[in-house]
Amino acid sequence: MPRRLYFYSTLIVLFFSISASLSAFGEEEDDIFGKTLERIHSESLTRSKLKKIPAKTETQGTVCITCQQGQTKTQNQRDLEALNASTTKQPRKNAKEPDCITCDRVTVGAKGKIIINSPAENLWAQYADIHAYSTSMKTQKMIKAAIDDSYWVLDKNTRRRLRQRAPAPATGNCLRHVKLALQQSDLATEYLGGSRVNRPPRDAINRLKKVGFKNLLEIPPHDKTISNPAIAPKGAILIYAGGYNGGHIEIKTDWGTKGTYVSDHQAPTSIMQNELGGRAGNGYKLIGVMVKPGG
Amino acid sequence: MSKYLFLFLLTFSVNSFASEFKSSDEIINKLNSYQISDITGDAQRLKNKEKLKIDEMFDDLETAAKYLEDKTPNEEIAYSLERVCLLTFLHDPSSYSAELIMSVYDKNTELFKKASKKLHSYDQKVILEVLDGKSRALRDPAS
Questions:
Q1: pLDDT value for A102
Q2: In this complex, which of B98, B123, B132 lies closest to A100 when CB atoms are compared?
Q3: Which end of chain A, N or C, is less packed with Cβ atoms under 10 Å?
Q4: Which one-letter DSSP state was computed for residue A194?
Q5: Is the dihedral of CA B51, B52, B57, B62 positive or negative?
Q6: What number is the ipTM of this complex?
Q7: CA dihedral of residues A93, A98, A104, A109 (deg, nearest 10)
Q8: b/e for B38-55, b at 16 or more Cβ within 10 A?
Q9: Residue A92 and residue A208: Cα distance in Å, rounded?
Q10: Is A101's CB within 8 Å of B90's CB?
Q11: Distance CA B67, CA B49 (A)
Q12: Rg (chain B; Cα; Å)
């Protein structure tokens, strides 16, 4: 009996102790869960704050850090950007330069020497197609070929170089030299025909027109502008009537009075007499200033 | 007696026509009155056998240089002199105008360089190169 009593009493004590500990654990568990919930709740608040704070900085800051690429900006962002753009210090623009006196008119050479630019280039610069012809590679090639050949006597039939000579005086083969230079530079696809420049009249002009050249003396306002060969554009093929050999043809190698006039020989002035002295007297008349617009 | 009177009147009249500057402002006003159109219009004046503006500019530069011989020019005068020199360069490749003001330039090189900053950058380059070149050539003709 006492043994049974002892057993039951132990059981009871054990039960109570277990129930007591269990109740204590429950309280603690509730407490833990409560704190956890509180923490989670506070964290969620913080997260919501965090979510809101960048949203504020988006509207207040100069750079949108959080914007995704391609994301459309809010009105606030756009307004602030506009405000920032207006208040951001702009790079100071250069004060307006005074009017230039010598631009395009004067160049300074070695030792401070003044070189007055040719008015002819400025004149033709406003006609883009003619200026393009004068400055094209084909025209440069033609001028170079003509100058090179002016030091040579060319064979009548094959146009091969026979012997070297001084580039002056004339040999009476101006047309041959010019036609060869045209062919070598591809300005004419083939060697042009004809044996005299102006016999039959205007023969060279008509032949050049067939390969795309235009006579500036027939096109207004150039017909009035070109009063003498010095005004003709660079690379122009100048055709003259008169003389003992059925006219004359030559290529102008530069703008204004800077360059030379080249055919079977080279000369510093055109064949027409001009205020600087001229070469051949009054016998020649300029009838063609041929260019191929656009090259 | 009438002969002496005539000579006196002739001398007086010649002196009255000779242009002499009396102040820096007068120089500035006269030099600043020149424009590019004065130079371009010279072709027509040459045809009409009138006095050329470029000659007038040369005269004024020479007179101004004489006036400034014993005076210290200011930046405004230096600028006006440089500007008129540039105008003459348009028709005068010998840059004679630069020679006319060389005495002033040699004494006040830094002032001229400072004044040239008011000009267009291309003009500034042109005038300084020409003035430096002339100055060097006059100092050392062999170079």
A1: 86
A2: B123
A3: N
A4: -
A5: negative
A6: 0.80
A7: -100
A8: bbeebeeeeeeeeebbbe
A9: 56
A10: yes
A11: 30
A12: 17
A167 preceded by a cis bond (ω within 30 of 0) = no
Q: Of the candidates B93, B125, B137, which has its C-beta nearest A111's C-beta?
A: B137
Determine the 3-state secondary structure of A240 from DSSP: strand
In sequence order, which ranges of chain A are alpha helices (DSSP H)? 2-60, 75-87, 119-125, 128-135, 137-149, 174-184, 203-210, 222-225
Provide the angle, in degrees to the nearest 10, between the axes of the packed helices B53-67 and B75-89. 150
Q: Mean pLDDT of all residues in chain A? A: 74
* Predicted confidence (pLDDT) per residue in A196-253, tens digit: 998 899 999 999 999 999 999 999 888 888 888 888 999 999 999 988 778 899 999 9
Query: Strand A214-215 relative to strand A114-116: parallel, antiparallel, unpaired?
Result: unpaired
Residue type, A65: I
Residue A274 predicted with pLDDT over 60: no
Q: Do A102 and B123 touch (CB under 8 A)?
A: yes
Contacts of B120 in chain A (CB under 8 A): 97-101, 103
Name the DSSP class of A182.
H
What gap in Å lies between CA A148 and CA B72, rounded to an integer? 58
In contact, B100 and B130? CB cutoff 8 Å: no
Q: Which residues contact A75 (CB under 8 A, 6 or more apart)?
A: none
**pLDDT at site A236:** 94
**Model pLDDT for residues A79-106, shown as the tens digit of each residue:** 656 655 554 444 444 567 788 888 878 8
Q: How confident is the model at residue B59 (pLDDT cuts 50, 70, 90)?
A: very high
Count H helices and E strands in chain A, helices first.
Answer: 8, 10
Q: Is A120 exposed, middle or buried (0-12, 13-18, 19+ CB in 10 A)?
A: buried
Q: Does A98 touch chain B (CB under 8 A)?
A: yes
**Closest residue of chain B to A105, computed from CA coordinates:** B90
- Residue A153 CA to residue A149 CA, distance in Å, equals 8
